[in-house]
Write a structure and sequence with these properties.
Chain lengths: 252, 401
Amino acid sequence: MSAAPSPVVEFAQVFKIYGAGDTEVRALDGVDMRIDAGEFVAIMGSSGSGKSTAMNIIGCLDAPTRGEYRFRGVDVGALDQDQRALLRRHYVGFVFQGYNLLARTTALENVELPLVYRRVPTRERHEQAMAALVAVGLADRAGHTPAELSGGQQQRVAIARALVSNPSLLLADEPTGNLDSARKHEIMELLVRLNRELGITIAMVTHEPDMGQYVSRVVMFKDGRIVDQGLPADVSFAGPISNRPLSQRGSA
Amino acid sequence: MIHLTLVMALRQIRRNTLRSFLTMLGIVIGVGAVIALVTIGEGATAKVTADIGKLGDNLLIVQPGGFRRSSGFQSANAFTKDDVDAIRRDVPGAEKTAPTAGKQALAVWGNRNWRTSVTGTTAEYLEIRTYTVAEGRTFTEGESSAGQPVCVLGATVRKELFGSDRALGESIRVDKLSCEVIGVLTAKGQSGMGQDQDDVVLVPLRAAQRRLAGNNDVGGIYVTVASGRSTTRVKAQIEELLRERRNIVAGAEDDFNVRDMAEIAQTVSSATGALTALLGAIAAVSLLVGGIGIMNIMLVNVTERTREIGIRLAIGAMAREVLLQFLVEAVVLSTIGGVIGIGAGLLGSWAATRALNVPFVVVPNILVVAFVFSAVIGVLFGYLPARKAARLNPIEALRHE
């Protein structure tokens, strides 16, 4: 990483408002946020805190109602749907809670998918996809379909798919949400390794405090606002998380 | 990109072989039915035309009676032997001329009988109608002019009366005429109009006139036009000659008619052609139904693959790329169905033409039209589901269960 980190994500007074008048819901209520290249940031908060909305905007799947969102310096709010698709295609990798691999499609083909849309020629596509599978430790499962893989393996294929196009930002939405605790830690260690060794910028949405321990910075959302942020050790998880039984199960 | 989309579409179709096949089935049946009906229809048309052509497209048939606007078809005086001689003598383009006088009569041999059509004529008639003699011989000039009691049997009559017995030299009775069988004709089969051309007994004209009809009438005259002569010209000359001989004043309508076989062939083939087109159009309706089947499956497909669409959109597919993908899938499905349908249609019609004993005539145009039409159906009925897929919101699509 360079000495002066460049911002990948910049939120300036970002609002996302659904409905109008009395029924108006502010999913994001004036958020300022910045993620620099090389960071591994956890976006945390209870459900309804606005973290998923923030995630969709960061991933250029959605545009803010008001305020400015700059991705790599580009004002995303000014782009149309196709331009946002191109931005995702070239600079963003997605990892989802439910893996979201194409069924009845081999791991290798799944990993190749982003390269198909990038018009990468067949041979290079195979090579790059294979390299990504090697990076997540699944080279020997390249020919397997999702049904033939365990949850942890599927999530690693999904990470390889997000990784293969060498994105500026890897967005992970509850990547450990469907896994048992041993697999959770494996996946987190993989993400940390990708962040440290390959210098990939990662933004991860999670509600599990345990997972927050792996990252370089935690951003805590509540009611559409950032209520706290800093090193995992300095951020209080107790408040918004304590009433979530799932997270307690996760940390048990 | 279109190449990759095509590969993706084929992969998708292979992933769900049974469903893809069932989806295609509508198109297969539609295209197959159109191809089969049109091909069989063309074969039938070709056969009818060929059969009429066998009579000779240089053949004119002169019959008494004319068409009058006021009262329809009008019966009129028959011709005479003199009319035939006059045509032979005065119309230079007339190559062969044969009079006919016929009626339905019961032919009897021993204890067997058979109702058939008896025609009094001359030896030239056999040449004009392209009959050939299988056994024995035809009338001599002397037998014809003298009206000797001799007869030539068609293959059907021979079989019905004699079975496996020898017919030549036997004497049969046709109404009041007893005659000796001097020849048997080679079988010709059905005519283009569905008549059995072998169900005939030919006797000398004079014999038929004297013993069967009891008058000197000639019911019809067959004329072939010499090669190199215009059929229309000869027809006009015959008309002019007969008007004169029958004392028809200028301006009055003919009380006879001269039919040109080429004209008849054209009329008949255009009628069967219209029938073929009608059958093809009915079959085309099933193509439409097949298209709706494709739309139905593609709509289900889009719903079922909402998550996949969400993934593709998140990964960076543009709406038009998703649209193209689903459209290409529909078109690939329908064109594969079209190709299979063309194959099935050709195979089916080949078998049918064999069974119906008509020629197998492939119309290349209909193959091209069927193929293009099936692709067009893919585009038309694939567009709506594809647009539905492309308009999905990626966030909602990803959340879809």
